[in-house]
Task: structure prediction
Amino acid sequence: MPAQSKAQQMAAGAALSAKRDNTKVSKLQGASKEMYDSMSEDELADIASTKRKEKPVHKDD
Result:
């Protein structure tokens, strides 16, 4: 499942970093915290690897 916006891709990247113990979970907030709690490392990697070119900043844009 590719990311639908730049914000979603960046949040997935932050959550993935925490899953891999590169970032403290306490540093996560908002969507990245929710993604960390509800998604597997493979799902996060899939979303985080989405290219950002031509994606809106937010889904509603």
